[in-house]
Amino acid sequence: MRSAKLVAPRQIEIFEDRMPLPGEGEVLVRVKAAGICGSDLHIYQGERADVTLPRILGHELVGEVESSGGGANRFSKGDRVTIDPVVSCGSCVSCKRGYDNLCSTVKCLGVQVDGGYCDFIVVPEEKVYALPSSLPWEKAALIEPFSIAAEVLSRSEVREGDKVLVLGAGTIGLCILQAMKLAGAEVLTSDFVESRLEKAKELGADVVVNSKTGDLSAALREFTGEFGADVVIEAVGIPRLLEESLGYAAPGGRIVVLGFNPEPAKIPEVLVVKKELKIIGSRMNCRKFPQVIEWFEKGLVNPEPLISAKYPFEKINDAFKDILRDPQKYLKVLITY
Ligand code: MN
């Protein structure tokens, strides 16, 4: 089988590898499509200290079941599935409490262990989910990014009618926007890329603001009647935006962060205290695939406008290079097999 390995920063090579075999409780999946995530771009450029090379990236995966190992009997050959990339041990305190994404040895497929930029991948059966029969591969590959949004949604404790500020209209920001609208929130989305703001409008944002050319603070005051945002989502991952979020949040507001930037943000304690703010982390997803698959099945979210380009497997290195040459041009880029 073919496998695309990141062998050095900015260098993916395609190898011919032996096909893996599913062990006890595992399923062998023939990958049909995979997304390229912002985190993959960081890893590709050698920016993630927790990733060792060589590594097969790819955690936004859909495919067909090829075979199952002993004790795994939920799927048959040819079943169309997606894979939750959160790898958890199942026995530590966090896992026993139900927080797979906070497992003491948590890993993500395609990040700290090999992922799915290869023809076949073996995964635990409990991480495999059946796809709705009518859902095409390309759209289904967006289930994982929406699972990030589903996690943010639950972490944010958003209520109907809440005013939500989403900082960033990249793929994840646009998934979060859609999840927030589903929950009945009103959403202001900001970004500095005009084409992304147009997508945000198309996908239901009540207000969009170009943070470079417009006045976000003024727009937020108008949007919230001077009160501030009940929920601020920092969907870009830069410390300065977390600092600014404290000013955007309403009294009693929640700020959700999901970036992996290791640089410290300067957060005045007094601001957190005075407004009784909650700063909430949101990591990958915790068993959100069933919920997201239901969103897709019922057509409650719209993944299609998020797909910017598709590359055949052999051109995977070109895909990464093209995105990095002009990052603002792309939302989700898919690899097809
Ligand atoms: Mn992702």
Brief sketch in words of this structure:
By secondary structure, the chain is an alpha/beta fold. It has eleven helices and 17 strands.
What can you tell me about this protein's structure?
The chain has helices at residues 38-44, 93-96, 137-140, 143-156, 171-182, 194-202, 216-224, 239-248, 269-274, 289-297, 316-325, and strands at 2-8, 11-16, 26-36, 60-68, 80-83, 86-87, 107-108, 120-124, 128-130, 163-167, 186-191, 207-210, 229-234, 249-257, 278-281, 307-312, 332-336. With 337 residues, the chain is of the alpha/beta class. Strands 3, 4, 5, 8, 9, 16 and 17 form a seven-stranded mixed sheet that branches. The longest helix is centred in the middle third of the chain and has 14 residues, at 143-156. The relative contact order is 0.16. It binds manganese (II) ion.
Q: What structural keywords apply?
A:
alpha/beta, 6-stranded parallel beta sheet, 11 helices, binds manganese (II) ion
Blueprint of the fold:
Layout (H helix, E strand, L loop, with lengths): L1 E7 L2 E6 L9 E11 L1 H7 L15 E9 L11 E4 L2 E2 L5 H4 L10 E2 L11 E5 L3 E3 L6 H4 L2 H14 L6 E5 L3 H12 L3 E6 L2 H9 L4 E4 L5 H9 L4 E6 L4 H10 E9 L11 H6 L3 E4 L7 H9 L9 E6 L3 H10 L6 E5 L1
Parallel strand pairs: 10-11, 10-13, 11-12, 13-14, 14-15, 16-17
Antiparallel strand pairs: 1-2, 3-4, 3-8, 3-17, 4-5, 5-9, 6-7
Helix pairs in contact: 4-5, 4-10
The site of manganese (II) ion has 6 residues, from helix 4.
